[in-house]
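Data deposition worksheet. Section B asks for the primary sequence of the deposited chain exactly as it was used as input, without tags or linkers unless they were present during the calculation. Section C holds the resulting structure in C-alpha cell form. Section D is free text for depositor observations; keep each observation to a single sentence. Incomplete worksheets are returned to the depositor.
Section A, Depositor: J.P.
Section B:
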Amino acid sequence: MEQAIDERDDERYQEKAALRQASYARKKAAATQEKGLIIVHTGPGKGKTTAALGLAFRALGQGLKVGIVQFIKGAIPTGEAALVYKLQLPIEMYTLGDGFTWDTQNRAQDIATARHAWQQAVTLLRDPSFDMVILDELNIVLRYDYLPLAEVLEELRSKRHMLHVVITGRNAKEELIALADLVTEMKPIKHPYKAGIKAQRGVEF
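Section C:
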C-alpha cells in the first residue's frame, strides 16, 4: 500500500514537472527579441549594488566589457573597488562620489560632483566597446535633483540597442521605472542596525 502511494506521488510529480516544462518552453519560444536592457535595482533594502556587481561578474564570464560609475560612494574605500584593482579585473571603474549627502552638507558641491560623475557615465554609455554600464547610486542623485531627470532619460533612450545599463539606488523615479525593462525592489525584513550592530567590513563596504 505504501509503495502504491509513493508511485502515485511520483506520477503526480512527473505530470506537474511536464506542465512546468511545457509552460517554460512556450514562454521561451515567444521571447524572440534581443536587446540591451535597462535594469533598475531600487528599494530601501540592502543588496542593490551587490546585485549589480553580480551582473558585472556574470557579464565578464560571458566575455562582455563592463564599466562602472559610482556616484555617491567615494569617501570610504569599498571592497568592490579594492577587488577590481587587486585582481586587475577587466572592469573600468570610476568611484567619483564625495560620500553621504548628510556628510557633505554642501548642495553646490554635491551637484558639481554629480555632474562630473555623469560626464564620465555618458562617456561610457557612448563608447561602443562597452557591453554593460553600471551607474551605481544614480537614483540618489536623481532623487535630490543633482542632475536633471530629463537629461538622464534622454541619454538612456538614445543608448545603443545592445548596451545593458544597470542603475541602482533607493527611490527610483517613476519615469525611470517606466522606461526600464527590468525593475527589482529590495525590501528589508531585518537589518542589523536596528539591533545596534555597526556596518561590517566585507558586508556593507
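Section D:
The chain has a mean pLDDT of 89.
The chain is about 45% helix and 15% strand.
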